[in-house]
Design a protein that fits this description.
The protein is α+β, with helices and mostly antiparallel strands.
Length: 1020
Amino acid sequence: MKRPGRPAPRAALPRPGLLLLVLLVLLLAGAGGARAQPAPASQPGGNVALTEAERAWVAEHPVVTVANSLDWAPFDYTEDGMPRGMSTELVSLVAGRVGLRLQFVNGLPWSAMLERFLAGQIDVMPALYWNRARAAHIAFTSHYAYNPPALALRAEDAGLRRLDQLTGRRVGVVSGSALLEMVRRNRPGVEMVPLESVSAGLESLARREIDALLDTAGAIGHRIGPGAAGSLSMVVDPSLAGLADMHLRIGVLREQQVLHDLLQKGLDTVTPAERLALARRWLPDTESLAADGFFGPLPLTEAEQAYVRARPRLSFGARSDLTPIEFVDDQGAHAGLVSDILQRVSASTGLLMDMAPERNFAEQVAALTAGETDFIAAALPGPDTDRLLDFTRPYLPVPAVLLTRLDAPFLRGLDGLEGMRVGVVYGSPVHDHLETTRPDLRLVTAPDIESVLTDLSRGETDAAVANLMTASNALDRLELTNVKVAASTGFSTNYAMAVRNGDTALLGVLQKALDAIDPRDLDMFRNRWVSLRGEPPLDAGRLLAWGGIAAAVAVLLLGGMGLWSRKLRREMRERRAAELRSLEQAAELERQRDLLKVVMDAMTVGVVAFDRGLRLITWNAKFVEIRGYPEGMLREGMAFEELLRYDVEHGEFGPGDPERIFAERLERMRQFRLSSTERPRPDGRFIEIRGSPLAGGGVVTIVTDMTDRKRSEQSLGRALEENRRQSERLRGLADNLPAMVFQFGPGPRGEVNITYASANMRRVFGMDRPGEVQTTATFFDRVLPQDAGRVREALSRALSDTAETLSLAFGIRAPDGTERWLDASLRAYALPGGGRHWDGLVLDVTERRRAEETLRSSESMLKTILAASPLGATMMRSDGRLEYFNPRLAEMLGVAPRALEGASLGDHCLDAAQCEELFCRLARDGRVDALHLPLRHASGRRVETLFTCRENLSGEGFIGWLDDITERLATEARLTEKMEELEQFSRIAVGRELRMIALKAEVNALRAELARPPSYELAE
């Protein structure tokens, strides 16, 4: 079954005011009016050749009815009872090209018009958006305009930029609009208010009956301008553009296929000049955007643009056995994570995507190379396919994992599978990889993942290796409760898109569309199709409380009034117990507050938080130190504007107009956006500033002094501390701490129990499943096998040792399958009743470790290159001491390498004064070029060298190269000697030759005096 794809997110429109729609794309219509009479049979676009069936259909249907909205300018609206708008004019033009007579139906709200259309009472909808539900009943033409979602806001909310910033507030949407269901599905926290029209929505917004109006840039931008609407503003929300297809199309019911074909033929004849003329009439500023056209959001080359124009509809190969990566749903439509990605590709390119009949991967490759399809959506690069296909860069890495039964012994990875029966899907990438790399494994194949997991659950195999996403989905569907993911295998399946060899234009279009997808959206797609299901743990305290109440009621009923006094005493005891519990809860809350304060004060970064009114909530001492504020200046409730004014007046943001800088910084802060910037401070230090919005409004900012470690930044998460007894302010701040916070202590049987874990830690280590919050089982499931034993031993030893601090470094397998490296700092504290617990702060140091490994690798590579160099090479300090030298330098000096360790290059210089001058030049200029430097060989002979030296990139020490030119100088001396000898001989020979010529001339002169002819011929 074929279906068009939905679009992907687009960049913000080039000019928000006119942006009306980034627009008219490739197939807009030209001239023509919105009248009920048929357009002339011949138009500037040329006559349209109709088939016999199409001519018969036109003859049988003398009038075609077209919906005409009341109020959706500038595309489709009614003025004085007459149809108006770009879409209605386009439909009239297209109908005239194919000989159709139109009758516009108006006077009804848009939702009622759509109902009549779906009931078959109206033939054509001139301006529709595609979605999957509509595609089941409606046949769409190609698109003729792009009209992105936009918000209308009042002046006081002008700083808002995204719909998700309106969570908990009322947002109006026209009834029946494709945006209504899209928002309900993707932004459930926003309260949607159905409206009759866009104009009615703007009136409701002005009367404060709603907080915002959601429609499109074209419809809202047409109405908002000078005058009555001047108090309103429009903003295009780029986060919504990829959630629905925002390309306008003409739609008819699927049973009206002939009518659809007629309209498409007419639409195909519209010329570029006609498109531009139509756009100028309805979108006055379109001419200035005409160069951008549809291709503005993607940097397509001319060849790629021509390809999209020539091939607006593509077919792709798909599979049904990759759920949830890619599959065919119950309606026969393409679905899964790859489908979401294709919809984004469709939106950013304008290409429609038709799914070809489902095939396995080998059949997909055959169909693509035979020209039956245009590309493969989820392809696997490899030796067998690389010679036939060209691939985009992989866009979806999926790790392969090891699965076992719950009662199986602990396995660290594939190395523990010797002698076991290991299930795999036959012919899958996992199967091919294991057959090639692990011939020692005993593989048991099955036709699909369901069979592999069922065999494992029944005990017919001992383990299984499978794609993580397909395995997780199958486990949920099969409800196999005795199978678990046991370990990582260390390899992944990397999906890419594939085209035929040489199809470079399409490959470029697909690659640029994939590159344009925000990584956060890719994470959203993964979360949509791969989710962990769990039920909240039973609250034992609540059960006991209700049990106590029920018991009390039973006692009262049985005891009667005679137990009244006992009841009073019991109530007093319970009240005292309740008071004691309240005190304990208050103490626990205070302890949590103290813990947070200790954590903040111990942090090496500055932290500051503001509420939604931009009033100062809290800060730590490091923030004041880094920013250099005077002591006592910061106070709770202080306005952000006061701090900002101080910063501007003290040149914090560099040169420029102070008022402009102040206004820009204030507006940026009011947007409450996630942000990250780096900049130098006036005192020469370099700082990084990360801002993050708080739930319910406000922002928390992390300031890091990057002066000494700019290239080794720590990628810090935010530790989320969740405590139902603390205030919303404390919870919001804790949720944004750049660390993972936890506590642990001894259990009743001496085991290690985690008594508290922040939200960030629970998320990273998967501690949100029932029954595991207070144990270390899930924690050690994430720790890499090679580190698990060491970490377990360290935690157990901490509980029995007297040490006050402990540091741990270990690796984990993150939920996304990547390896991360953590540094944990632990500190013990004594419990009031005896014993000890530990507080822990965990930082993600993956990026720093990778940077260090890269540096080590680079140094090793450099030394390998230098070791093979024919030149003498050395790394030395500014005083000439050798920190490194290659074998060639020791050979040039005639000494053993060990003799050069710690030595100075000056020890081997023949001229001490020249050597001293050399080091002065290096200290002053940081370099010397081709300096003639004589050195002393161990045998005492002179070694002539050319010395070139540069300052190390780190700024510490120098790197130098010495070229032995001793033989070259000797050769040059011999050459000079021979040249001088040759010159001397030449002078003698030339003298003899000149004398001979003179004698011949004298002979000829004497013969001439005797009237005789000359004896010799002389050259002139």
